[in-house]
Amino acid sequence: MKRFPNNDNFTYENGYKAWLSAIFIDLRNSTKLFTENSEVDVAKVIRGFTSEVIEILQKDTQDNELKEIGIRGDCVFAVYSTASKEEIYDIYQRAVYINTYLKMLNKLLDKRNLPNIKAGIGLAADKNLAVKAGRKSSGINDFVWIGKAVTTASNLADLGNKEGICPIVMSGTFYTNYIDVEKNENSKNWWRKNHDNQNGAYYHGNIVRTEFDEWIESGMID
């Protein structure tokens, strides 16, 4: 199957296998953030982080493209049905926008004497099996993604923005599809390649949207 169907097509008896991409945005040092600042200040920071990130992840998506979006503790995530390299590239663009937005958010937090935040942004793509799990008539159900993409994106987000790893971290498969679409001749120089036993080859970089970043650096004046 090239693409996952609409969510209404899933039952407790069937399952579908297709290409999907996952993105996880995982806060760094959240324990320190939560324990060393006032509850009101933390609430303001978390609301600013989650609401705008979710907006970026949802914007201009079709019903059968965005399969799941949610918050797990201090992490925002989304899962997309990506039937083409161009759609995988779109997920990359969302990651870059989020990475740039976090720079703006920290500038605004500085002005209000609120704590800054950092996040790792993990990206992965692969062919996965999706099944609906839960109990009939209970109203409690969710998708279970059986395969590498979601787990790998979560793992890579945990690596991002610490111990010398840049904020955006993508799996080897995601990179291979993304780079085929990227038109900038210097794009391969944006990324550093690493490898570990858990995630295999992965690429990390600190890419931002140029015009957005310049506006932030100029003082965010219209």
TrEMBL record:
Guanylate cyclase domain location: 21-157
Top class in the EC scheme: lyase
Keyword tags: Lyase
Keyword Magnesium attributed: no
GO molecular function: adenylate cyclase activity
Enzyme nomenclature, EC number: 4.6.-.-
GO biological process, one term: intracellular signal transduction
Coiled coil location: none
Name assigned to this protein: Adenylate/guanylate cyclase
Organism annotation: Tetragenococcus muriaticus 3MR10-3
Source species taxonomy: Bacteria, Bacillati, Bacillota, Bacilli, Lactobacillales
